[in-house]
Amino acid sequence: DANKETLGFQTEAKQLLHLMIHSLYSSKEIFLRELISNASDAIDKLRFAALSDESLLEGQGDYQVQVDVDKEAKTITISDNGVGMNREEVVEHLGTIAKSGTAAFLESLTGDQQKDSQLIGQFGVGFYSAFIVADRVEVHTRKAGSSADQGVVWESHGESEFSVEPREKVSRGTSITLFLKEDSEEFADDFRVRSVIKKYSDHIAVPVMMLKPTPPPAAEEEESDEDVVDVPEYEAVNEATALWTRSRTEVSDEEYEEFYKHISHDFEAPRSWSHNKVEGKFEYTSLLYIPQKAPFDMWNRDMARGLKLYVQRTFIMDEAEQFLPLYLRFVKGVVDSNDLPLNVSREILQQESSVDAMRSALTKRVLDMLGKLAKKEGDEYGQFWSEFGQVLKEGPAEDFANKEKIARLLRFSSTHTDAEAQDQSLEDYVSRMQEGQEKIFYVVAENFNTAKNSPHLEVFRKKGIEVLLLSDRVDDWLMNHMQDFDGKSFQDVARGALELATDSEEDKAEQEKLQKEAEGLVERMAKVLEDKVAEVRATARLTDSPACLVVGDYDMGAQMKRIMEAAGQ
Ligand code: ADP
Ligand code: MG
Hints:
Elements: E1 5-8, H1 11-23, H2 30-52, E2 65-70, E3 75-80, H3 87-95, H4 102-107, H5 113-123, H6 130-133, E4 134-142, E5 152-156, E6 161-166, E7 173-180, H7 190-201, E8 208-211, H8 220-223, E9 234-236, H9 253-264, E10 272-278, E11 284-290, E12 307-311, E13 314-320, E14 332-337, H10 346-351, H11 353-375, H12 380-392, H13 395-398, H14 403-409, E15 413-414, H15 426-431, E16 439-444, H16 448-452, H17 458-463, E17 467-470, H18 475-480, E18 484-485, E19 488-492, H19 505-528, H20 558-566
Parallel strand pairs: 2-8, 12-14, 16-17, 16-19
Antiparallel strand pairs: 1-6, 2-3, 3-7, 4-5, 4-7, 5-6, 8-9, 10-11, 11-14, 12-13, 15-17, 18-19
Helix pairs in contact: 1-5, 2-7, 11-14
């Protein structure tokens, strides 16, 4: 065929395909979840596009996914009447991986199948999972609104190349046929497939239809009617109501977890969730999830973030960023508003006052959910913190209104444990403060060991006063925005002249005596270091080290300086 074109997969796509086939083998049934999830996404997209152009529906507005199995042919076909794809889109979406962070992800793989399968899960499994069970996949698709002759077939054996060619398609949407491998023929079995769909796709809002099981042979007298042609009858296998519209008591944990996997493209179950229906001035339903693991691109500026937005149960957009602040960018979920117009755009969202109100309510929900997690027994919160703590530390700078709430959620390393794990809360610190101690002391350094061994800590260790040990990149930034906690102000131990309220009269006398004795030395040193330092001072703060550098009260912190220098300032 002159119109058939053979193309190579993008290198990253090829690598991912290979990995998928080889490390997800033990959970191969997930391919069905992925393909149904894509079908449902495609229907959501069409439903949205049809809001402004009804002609796209071609007079057929009953959305559904259909699954057909053929035991003889050893195939399973997943069809949808969603938005479909044109030739260009097929090549782009099924031949390349556009996701940011793909290269970094592939580099992080270890070669250990078990570990890698977890990582792939986090990355998102997607369409290529079809090749876990199939050695040939055929995608026949046509974009909604285009003519039947615009249909395209994409075909591949899941190795290094795929082909595309035109083929007429009367109905809009996509039909994906999997030619099953010998060891996966179970997926051509009606009963087996039904149970997988029940398990993974109950929460999908469109019906997933399968052929009704053939009824037992009818009694003879009824069979005589020769005019009746057997029209295959289909029935919905899943529940097919949008999960968030159901009441909390009706939804099982498994369903919440599966729904999370569908919207987040995550492989693992979420750490926790919060499902709420709000009535009153603004009416909306939200279902928010905290993932277990940080995504690969959490530090990438264009990482996918935000909630899935619905208006009166109609899907409007993915990644609606306006509903949560940046420091909660790891939260996944759905918000379904009753008040926003169906034709709402990103621009409109930015100006809507109801969106601001929802954003602050949703922010509180997430912070409360985290507060609850922190109170839970065990190490749940510790695990959360090690994945997302650094992002949460951006909170006090971004969200003045919730500073206090966020501060309670922060965790630090401190001289109390002298361990690198960040597991001490400010409340813990305050409860251990010494009598007369008015400040919360901290030191910032470029890494944990430097912080822990800072000469500035000597006097504190001697007096048994706890100091927070900060060494994350964001810590200087964070501390610039933390004025006080529980009425106690924060004090960088490397800044200015340090007066400890716990200093006794004796300490003070000693300091004075020391200053007198060292007068000559201090003068000489100040001369030598004239252009390098602002001042030389004798101190009783050091017990082991001969000298240390101190930053002025209003100067930039040492770490901030490094960041500015790295940025070329
Ligand atoms: P993801 O769903 O995370 O985007 P997938 O690998 O599952 O990634 O799918 C890749 C892309 O292929 C989708 O984003 C979509 O553009 C396209 N696609 C897959 N399945 C369908 C379908 N049934 N209908 C229309 N487009 C689809
Ligand atoms: Mg997908």
